[in-house]
Design a protein that fits this description.
There is one protein chain. The protein is mainly α. It has one domain. It is 83% helix and 0% strand. The protein contains eight helices and no strands. Helix 3 packs antiparallel against helix 7 and helix 7 runs antiparallel to helix 8. The longest helix has 57 residues. The N and C termini lie far apart (71 Å).
Amino acid sequence: MVIGLFTGSVWQIIGETSAFGLFVLICLTFMSLVSWFIIFHKWRQFRAVEQAGAGFLRSFEKSNKLADSIGQAKSYSISPLSKIFMAGYTELDELRQAKNQGGQLQSSQQPLSNEEYEVVEMTMERTLTEEIGILERRVIFLATTASAAPFMGLLGTVVGIMDSFWSIGERGSASLAVVAPGIAEALLATIVGLGAAIPAVIAYNWANNRIKFQNKYADNFILAFMVRARKEAL
């Protein structure tokens, strides 16, 4: 295949491919290019998110109070953890102010009820769902490519084989010169289909794994946030 690419045989096959076969090859090539774009984009996105999340979590663990982490949350705003923190802290602060009528001295503040803490937790979980949705964007295209590309390649293969049989019927000969173009077209469609599907399925599994990691990572952070919020109220 590699030798054929440099000797020009692949381009010759493409030049002699039927209109339908060429359409299949163009679709598969487009799907492959888009998949690679998504792969590189997701790699950069996950790397940035994980680095920012680790930095914010280190500062959060070192802080004594929730309010001490506000500045770091703004610095690491790309991280889902920082957005979850800000959503939870904002909701917690609003509930405290509403319960204590605009903010009195800390010693006279009334503690929040379990139901109010549940509201804070649900607010953070809603933000987590939104952030996971952002990480999942375009990943579905990888799954579509992984499942559809082999079948499109198979379709091109079937068309190429049919073309070979049609040539045999027209010329009344089954010589290699008659069947070779159609077989070559069929094999090329198979190769391009697999070439588009294999990276896509690997990248899809990798992206799903990173998303699940971020989900569990954020779930643990929400628990840590709620524990600290309850401790500060004691």
